[in-house]
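Hi R.,

Here's the input for the zinc ion complex you asked about:
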Amino acid sequence: MSFTLTCPICGPRNAYEFGYGGEDKGPRPDEKDLSPGDWCDYVHMNRCIAGESKEWWIHRSGCGIWFTTSRDTTCNLEVRGKAEEKDANPPLEKE
Amino acid sequence: MKFKKKRLWGDTPTMKTAYDAVIIGGGLHGLATAYFLSRHHGMQNIAVIEKRYIGFGGAGRNTAIVRANQRTQENLPLYQEALDLWPVLTRELNFNLMFYNCGNLNLAHSEAAIKAMRMNVSAAQFSGVDIRLVDRKECKELIPALDISDKPRYPICGGMFHPAGGILRHDAVVWGLAKGAAKNGVHIFQGTEATGIDVENGRVAAVDTSRGKIRTPRVLNSAGGYSADISYRLLGIKLPISVLTIQAMVTQPLKPLLHHVISSGAYHVYANQTLKGEIATGAHMDPWPNYTTQTTGHYIKHQAEALTEFLPCLKGVKFMRHWAGLADMTPDMAPIMDGNAPVDGYYMDCGWGYFGFKSCAVTGKYMAEFMATGECPDILKPFTLKRFEEHRLMGETAALVQYSADN
Ligand SMILES: Cc1cc2nc3c(=O)[nH]c(=O)nc-3n(C[C@H](O)[C@H](O)[C@H](O)COP(=O)(O)OP(=O)(O)OC[C@H]3O[C@@H](n4cnc5c(N)ncnc54)[C@H](O)[C@@H]3O)c2cc1C
Ligand SMILES: [Zn+2]
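And here is the predicted structure with zinc ion in place:
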């Protein structure tokens, strides 16, 4: 379905101009001594939150910039401001 | 005389404080597992808890296509047994599941597509699946309404035909399984949401629900599109899943013209004619994860254009209804079935994407065995969550870049 995303350069644009780049999982882990489990966690695992999710997007058919933004996955509305205050790892995580 | 309505699966029972197993999700997989637990394993003290009503999820929204033309050695036997199970289950449940084994025709629109199908057909034949390559002319014999000329943008070169596949009535499967399970003593609670899972010393101890706590040593996560959200929210276990909205629609009823399920990867569309006469068609998935289940005008247009390219007789036919549901997709297009890891007594049956209808009965059978014995049946072993860490993805699809729904 259609919705609007805000590109940091071009401003609000139709979401079909953008490419989804996955959940924001923090920085790419250091490959030195990296366990298969941690690599798998970074590559494959998702939180799949039905609610606010911080994620990567690219303005593919626009200026080409990669950026992160937060979206409510239950209604496709951008949630701005909140995510920036939060850590990349929400408190729910148990490991 | 007053007509008294009686529900197929009986009245809502009183909830007990403890059950031998709690099943989260009154969808296809949850109900099937409950049914087989109660029928084959003598486990009758089971609760199925469903947030909304049974069949609310993918169970009541799918296009009900069944087939066994998978690609890999791990998946093929499971789907073949799934196909064989429908007539057995119809008898066992004493409920007409309306299995219509009309066969599936997948179209190829290029030499490259034929080559890919040749590999697919060989793998499937090796596993005893009834399937063969067909040329352009035979496609036309199977579906005379097909345009096999060079007029369509992607002319038809041939295809693969899988006579044993077909469609069922999806609601009947939900009702039949619920009726069968309830008759064996399973308690089904609608309007009851799982809100927490208590773990004590690494073992499942209880499930919190919107109607109170249930103590139990076993819980199955079969919450369909919500299974990954639940897994992370209730247990902190992340899954390699992306949840996407997938759409479908039906036309006005027509006289019989499509005697087989038909699908085309190139046009990104599949269709079949229901027993009522409507052309049920779908395939579009949103290019980004979401839980909206919203439909788009964009896709109605795409569908109309694609279908009328190779079935020109559908021009002018009206679409009547349009809906969407959730598909929980994994990177290798194969499900995750696992248990007792990392939490004892916690079982999962998820990642079924858009292929969880055809597989529900057979999966229920084996998940029930898994939950009753604690031992993973051999046929389910390749589907472990560990495969992603071990780099043993299954390759049910050749391309991972964008998800594509064939049916
Ligand atoms: C448009 C569409 C077309 C499809 N076409 C096909 C097809 O042709 N062939 C095919 O094989 N498959 C198809 N599928 C896929 C198939 O429908 C699903 O894979 C299947 O329904 C999965 O079954 P399930 O039991 O895992 O989940 P579901 O049937 O979705 O059931 C899950 C249930 O869990 C409940 N639930 C969620 N959260 C909670 C909670 N916290 N507590 C309690 N209950 C909860 C939900 O309300 C839901 O009823 C299609 C799906 C869609 C949406
Ligand atoms: Zn931009």
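One thing worth noting: Residues 86-95 of chain A have pLDDT under 50 and may be disordered.

Cheers,
M.
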